[in-house]
């Protein structure tokens, strides 16, 4: 493990179940439970290429690196976040496995030609931009949370273009966008195969959705997984989440 190279306002957080350390900045970007769950949701290919779209500070790809020997390419449009991801990769001695591209998703074809990707992981902006949007956030959070620099349509279009036949797209999103996600995936021949709804606690509405789709797959064979609860009624983590964060 290398020494952290921190800038003003930054800190290092650790996912104790994996020993992975992430450089964070609350004013710029910090990973949350959605990134952790996405990194644990799909069965990852053990070889080949995994692409982490909308990578932020690299949390999803870094956490996923403990479960695969595949190469991981993290794509992030924001220079500050991409820089944090690169330094976290160095901090965890993962420069031989993981790289960062600081660019717009629209330009991914400059780095990947043809259909070479085995899996895409994506924690995209959740919210459409409309009159009710809170556009007073910092520029970093604004781009991370709202469909300004990219959207569902573009992500699915890119996935169809760069994934191998039967390659997979795994995404975390909001339940209120569920029908949008299904429609957009279908329009780009991405067949949903596994879906799991995530709840803050028993008795509350779902606030996250994990979904995995296969490029050019058949429409049958969809599995709705058991619900995943984050907290017990007393506010402590459920056994499943405690294991994800802290190990057995």
Give structural attributes.
248 residues, 7 helices, two-stranded antiparallel sheet, alpha/beta, nine-stranded mixed β-sheet
Task: Describe the fold and architecture.
InterPro entries: DNA_methylase_N6_adenine_CS, SAM-dependent_MTases_sf, Small_mtfrase_dom, tRNA_Adenine-N(6)_MTase. Residues 20-174 form the Methyltransferase small domain. With 248 residues, this protein is of the alpha/beta class. Helix content is 25%, strand content 26%. The chain has a single domain (11-246), classed as 3-Layer(aba) Sandwich (Rossmann fold). Strand 1 and strand 2 form a beta hairpin. The radius of gyration is 17 Å and the shape is globular. It starts with 10 loop residues before the first strand and ends with a helix.
Enumerate the spans where pLDDT stays under 50 for 5 or more consecutive residues: none
CATH level-two architecture: 3-Layer(aba) Sandwich
- In what range is the share of β-strand residues? 25-35%
Determine the N-to-C terminus distance. 23 Å
CATH fold field value: Rossmann fold
Q: Number of folding domains? A: 1
Structural class designation: alpha/beta
Which CATH class applies here?
Answer: Alpha Beta
Helix proportion of residues, in percent?
25-40%
Computed over alpha carbons, the radius of gyration is 17 Å
- SS summary, helix count: 7
Silhouette: globular
Could you tell me the number of beta strands? 11
Largest sheet: 9 strands, mixed
What's the CATH H-level homologous superfamily? Vaccinia Virus protein VP39
The average pLDDT is 91
Strand and helix order: EEHEHEHEEHHEHEEEEH
Domain Methyltransferase small: 20-174
GO biological process, one term: methylation
Organism: Streptococcus sanguinis
Protein name: tRNA1(Val) (Adenine(37)-N6)-methyltransferase
